[in-house]
Amino acid sequence: MTDSNQELLVYGPVPSRRLGRSLGIDLIPLKLCSYDCIYCQLGKSSSKTVTRRPYRKADDVLHQLEARLAQGVSPDCITIAGSGEPTLNSDIGKIISQIKKITPVPVALLTNGSLLSEPEVRDSVMGADIVIPSLDACTPEQFLTINRPHRLVTFDKMTEGIITFADEYTGKLWLEIFIMEGINASVSDALAFKPLVDRISPDVVYVNTAVRPPADPSVKQAS
């Protein structure tokens, strides 16, 4: 059992339409992110950063995971996510490799893709069985409006990072696109997304829209 005073880093399993019974791993403190997305259900980012640190230590994460599995939990997938951007955790590579030694359950990573332009970040997540990056904008202007990124993350840097990762990665790559009425959900937007999606060439594309209260109340669900 997890000590009642210890921060909960492993949660679930929770039902996921994509991943089945998903046991989640939270690698980042609440809303510490490279973006401040207008649609984020967690609210406004408390701190935008691109600085990578062991925000959650690998040993703490793995201890809690082993304890959960010892309780007889049988997930379909172990999902690395976070209350912020999980690739900001500099221990992510160690965590993925150690999970693979503990259990044969597939490991999935949910990421905004903003740091995949960095070779060390790409290398650190190659061991995941499934990687699900986000692509919410098809132009630099949309990127600034929707994702409100850290000043060092540009649209071109982000897209080229995802494309490069897709070329190098041998696991399953599922791309997620979040659309909002009046922002990035028009026919012209779909046409602008297509060449980017073609270059990434994911195994699957998931299109989502706002169903939970967003950080910006003006965000509307795409119809």
What does this structure look like?
This protein has a single domain, classed as Aldolase class I (TIM Barrel), CATH 3.20.20.70. The chain is 29% helix and 21% strand. The chain contains 6 helices and 9 strands, in the order E-E-E-E-H-E-H-E-H-E-H-H-E-H-E. A hairpin with a 3-residue loop joins strand 1 and strand 2. The protein is globular. The model has no long low-confidence stretch (mean pLDDT 92).
Overview in brief:
This protein is of the alpha/beta class and 223 residues long. It has helices at 58-70, 92-102, 119-124, 140-146, 155-168, 187-200, and strands at 10-16, 20-26, 32-33, 47-48, 77-81, 107-111, 130-133, 172-179, 204-209.
* Tally of individual helices: 6
Nearest-angstrom radius of gyration? 17 Å
User: What share of residues is helical?
Assistant: 25-40%
What CATH architecture label applies?
Answer: Alpha-Beta Barrel
Assign an overall shape. globular
Would you report the number of β strands? 9
CATH topology name, in short, is TIM Barrel
* Sheet with the most strands, sense and barrel status: 7 strands, mixed
Name the strands of the widest sheet in spatial order: 1-2-5-6-7-8-9
Number of domains: 1
Low-confidence stretches: none
Average pLDDT for all residues:
92
The quaternary organization reads as: single chain
Bin the strand percentage.
15-25%
